[in-house]
């Protein structure tokens, strides 16, 4: 991804360098060539419509090339690949909390393997933050009350800056961390330590504890929709609209169940606003996703061979 | 005060007609009100500049050592708020526009002289409240007031600052309204639309933005205050609000506000280039229309501040495309100014040096705007120093260069005195060099990934930050110089002739300084704008070089 952005950036530097040379060159040349001389009067020129059209159309054409190229790069970076490894990110004043789908938790650090697509599902507990990794040319604001998504694929092992780039208060410039890109073997070894089990398993437990499973049963008899295979599919709502069951939809259905009622069901579900933390919400979302194996991303369970890592936190 | 007598034969003018504080504070003369604004915005400029100086000193080292983190956050917040709302937005319109719009169209005053005075009092009321907010604790939200930080998390004087800007906004709206009515209704006989100086076209376009855009920021700030004080859920998701709604509303004004700052400056530059190249502006009609199209298209591009904020990719696509539409009229202007120089008879007086400076800095600022409007690149450089550098090239490099150029150009008319030309040329050079040294390294910093609003930063960014701070020191000297020699010239400067530059334009046909009602009798215009051929045919002699 960094390569794509850099190529576009260099193209822009060349284009604007040429424009700068052209304009500066012309201004300096004219200023010197036509400097005031006694007895020589300026020659009045009214203007020229063909010239005006030319220097409107040519820049516009160049702009359109820049626009189109930029749009392609942007679209690619906004569309996470389907089989990306998922990491849930919760931002708060002033730290980054990461939770791997496999259950590992980290603060201000994110370990990822080289060459694998990593999808970030991010939300904030308080104000707006922004997840910025300059080396990956990647940035996405992290908002309270909803998920935003970003993805990257690291190509070089190493440690890279993670910055919060949306001003968030006193320690904004202290809300920094590291993305640690490891060789796959090292990463597997790191992964195997200190996990409390996959995030979806935590979610499954919560699903039972909170009583969700009494209504969202695995048959058609429940008072709530059967959630098997729902994720990633279109859902017909009572008011006739159809929405895709993505992370934000599941999140909203937990916190504000009355907002989008599934066709054929009654708005009987109580809200869980304030009853579940962002981390618990993430686990629930991960669990619901795990009920749709087709749409769900490849969730890799941690291997054996426990090997603790000092960077992990509970 | 600019009313020192230098010769017994001094003619009556707007400065010496009446004396005493009352004659200034209750004046309805657009020229005196312009001077009231000049004094007030200069005051705020130096306050904002002082904040900038502290910011640059803090960033000299990677660690946070000069001030506390919270203090730093207040410094950049208040630097932005003061400079944007209390200096740049009023700068050219309220000072030079106020002084010149009536004179350039051959009118005695603005259409609503008392509303004009009211504008100044609103500005002062807003400014006083802003000062109060800053002196009793300050604000730390960033000048952008992003929610929910501003409504639910900041423990500073958000409400006061918001209301201060709300009040000052009405000053801006009323000035815009006054200009639009004046330009429509009070042009002298023969002063047709196609004979208007481009300065007037630029102010007309600016006024439209002021009238249509400012109410939106006013409403937005009221909503921020309502959410903060009354916990109405508008922007904060915890109260059922939408934080992106704030950003849409904020930028709906604050992007066009950039054009409130830059369009008048473009108007100034058109006047200066025409005068010192002794030529009619190349493609007059296109330059005039491009001002209006910037005003219109400027309203359609706001969400390019939000490409990574969480808006839909399709919305981003549309706003990126539209952003390029506003780049075209800006490019047209630059090409036309350049073409005006062709076969001109170019003088290098200080105003022209500022105009050259404007051309250079605005070109760089404009071209780097292409990077930010480009979706793929914005993802990376958004909210980094690249953005800081870009908008300073436009708003300081562009708008402030134009303002200083204009102040030099019209100073003989405003004060009746000549400023020292040598010093003025030196200052123009210092500002240009200092500016580039300050802000060019920030483009590189941004591309390397240094986020904006960082109190401390990783050590690899230090070299470029040191360069930037060094440049800021030079720049500071460059800004102090004109202040010193303008003040000096009020007492010691040589008396200015009525038309020291042999310039076209009705404002030069009055005496310097003008009388209260500008013209002895209503002028009748029989010539086109920028009739430098006729003027120079009449004066075979060289344009008097001043200083």
Q: How many angstroms does the end-to-end distance of chain B come to?
A: 22 Å
Please tally the helical runs of chain B, counting DSSP H or I stretches of 4 or more residues: 16
Identify the quaternary structure here.
heterodimer
Task: List segments of chain B where confidence is low: pLDDT < 50 over at least 5 consecutive residues.
Answer: 1-6, 540-547
Supply the CATH superfamily name of chain B: Cytochrome c oxidase-like, subunit I domain
Put the structure in a nutshell.
The complex is a heterodimer of chains A (314) and B (547). Helix content of chain A is 34%, strand content 21%. Chain A is α+β, with helices and mostly antiparallel strands and 314 residues long.
Explain how this protein is built.
The complex is a heterodimer of chains A (314) and B (547). Chain A has 314 residues and is α+β, with helices and mostly antiparallel strands. Chain A has seven helices and twelve strands. Chain A is 34% helix and 21% strand. In chain B, α13 (385-415) packs antiparallel against α14. Chain B is 67% helix and 0% strand. Chain B has one domain (21-538): Up-down Bundle (Cytochrome C Oxidase, Chain A). Chains A and B meet through α1, α2, β7 and β9 of A and α3, α5, α8, α9 and α10 of B.
């Amino acid at each position: 991804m960094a390569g794509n952005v850099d190529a576009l950036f260099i193209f822009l530097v060349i284009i604007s360098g040429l424009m700068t040379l052209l304009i500066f060159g012309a201004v300096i040349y004219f200023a010197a060539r036509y400097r005031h001389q006694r007895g020589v009067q300026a020659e009045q020129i009214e203007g020229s419509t063909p010239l005006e059209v030319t220097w409107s159309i040519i820049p516009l054409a160049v702009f359109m090339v820049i626009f189109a190229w930029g749009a392609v790069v942007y679209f690619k970076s906004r569309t996470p690949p389907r089989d990306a490894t998922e990491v849930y990110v919760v931002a708060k004043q002033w730290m980054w909390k990461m939770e791997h789908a496999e259950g590992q938790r980290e603060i201000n650090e994110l370990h990822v393997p080289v060459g694998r697509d990593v999808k970030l599902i991010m939300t904030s507990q308080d104000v707006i933050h922004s997840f910025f990794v300059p080396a990956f040319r990647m940035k996405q604001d992290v908002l309270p009350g909803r998920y935003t998504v970003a993805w990257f694929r690291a190509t070089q092992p190493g440690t890279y800056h993670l910055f919060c780039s949306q001003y968030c208060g006193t320690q904004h410039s202290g809300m920094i961390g590291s993305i640690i890109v490891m060789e796959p073997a090292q990463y597997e070894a790191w992964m195997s330590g200190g996990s409390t089990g996959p995030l979806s398993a935590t979610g499954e437990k919560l699903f039972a504890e909170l009583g969700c499973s009494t209504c969202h049963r695995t048959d058609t008899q429940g008072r709530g929709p059967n959630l098997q295979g729902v994720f990633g599919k279109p859902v017909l709502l009572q008011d006739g609209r159809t929405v895709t069951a993505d992370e934000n939809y599941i999140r909203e259905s937990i916190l504000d169940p009355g907002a989008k009622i599934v066709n054929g069901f009654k708005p009987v579900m109580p809200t869980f606003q304030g009853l579940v933390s962002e981390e618990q919400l993430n686990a629930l979302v991960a669990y619901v996703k795990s009920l749709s194996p087709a749409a769900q991303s490849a969730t890799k369970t941690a291997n054996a061979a426990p090997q603790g890592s000092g960077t992990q936190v509970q | 005060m600019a009313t020192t007598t230098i010769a017994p034969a001094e003619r009556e003018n707007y400065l010496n007609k009446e004396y005493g504080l009352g004659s200034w504070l209750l004046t309805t003369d657009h020229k005196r009100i312009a001077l009231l604004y000049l004094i007030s915005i200069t005051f705020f400029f130096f306050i904002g500049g002082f904040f900038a100086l502290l910011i640059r000193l803090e960033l000299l080292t990677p660690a946070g050592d000069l001030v506390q983190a919270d203090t730093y956050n207040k410094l950049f917040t208040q630097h932005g708020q003061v400079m944007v709302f209390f200096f740049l937005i009023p700068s050219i319109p309220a000072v030079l526009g106020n002084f010149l719009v009536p004179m350039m169209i051959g009118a005695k005053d603005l259409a609503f002289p008392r509303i004009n005075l009211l504008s100044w009092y609103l500005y002062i009321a807003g400014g006083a409240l802003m000062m109060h907010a800053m002196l009793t604790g300050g604000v730390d939200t960033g000048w952008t007031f992003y929610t929910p930080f501003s409504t639910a998390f900041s423990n500073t004087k958000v409400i006061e600052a918001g209301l201060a800007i709300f009040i000052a906004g009405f000053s801006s709206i009323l000035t815009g309204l006054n200009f639009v009515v004046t330009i429509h209704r009070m042009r002298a006989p023969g002063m047709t639309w196609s004979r208007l100086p481009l300065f007037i076209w630029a102010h007309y376009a600016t006024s439209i933005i002021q009238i249509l855009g400012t109410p939106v920021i006013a409403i937005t700030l009221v909503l921020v205050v309502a959410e903060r004080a009354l916990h109405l859920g508008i922007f904060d998701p915890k109260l059922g609000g939408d934080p992106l709604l704030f950003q849409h509303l904020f930028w709906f004004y604050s992007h066009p506000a950039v054009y409130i700052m830059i369009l008048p400056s473009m108007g100034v530059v058109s006047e200066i280039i025409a005068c010192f190249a002794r030529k009619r502006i190349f493609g007059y009609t296109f330059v005039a229309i491009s001002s209006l199209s910037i005003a219109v298209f400027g309203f359609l591009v706001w969400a390019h501040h939000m490409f990574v904020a969480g808006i839909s990719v399709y919305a981003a696509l549309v706003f990126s495309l539209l952003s390029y539409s506003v780049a075209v009229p800006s490019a047209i202007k630059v090409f036309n100014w350049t073409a005006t120089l062709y076969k001109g008879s170019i003088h290098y007086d200080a105003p022209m040096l500022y105009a050259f400076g404007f051309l250079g800095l605005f070109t760089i600022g404009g071209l780097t705007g292409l990077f930010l409007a480009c979706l793929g690149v914005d993802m990376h450089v958004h909210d980094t120093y690249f953005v800081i550098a870009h908008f300073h090239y436009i708003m300081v490099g562009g708008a402030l260069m134009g303002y200083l150029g204009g102040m030099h150009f019209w100073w003989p008319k405003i004060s009746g005195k000549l400023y020292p030309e040598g010093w003025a040329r030196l200052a123009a050079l210092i500002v240009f060099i200092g500016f580039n040294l300050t802000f060019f390294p920030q483009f590189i910093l941004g591309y390397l990934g240094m986020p904006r609003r960082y109190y401390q930063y990783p050590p690899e960014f230090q070299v470029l930050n040191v360069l930037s701070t060094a440049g800021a020191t030079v720049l500071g000297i460059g800004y102090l110089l004109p202040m010193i020699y303008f003040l000096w010239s009020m007492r010691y400067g040589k008396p200015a002739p009525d038309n020291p530059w042999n310039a076209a334009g009705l404002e030069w046909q009055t005496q310097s300084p003008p009388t209260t009602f500008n013209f002895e009798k209503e002028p009748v215009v029989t010539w086109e704008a920028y009739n430098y051929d006729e003027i120079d045919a009449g004066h075979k002699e060289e344009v008097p070089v001043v200083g």
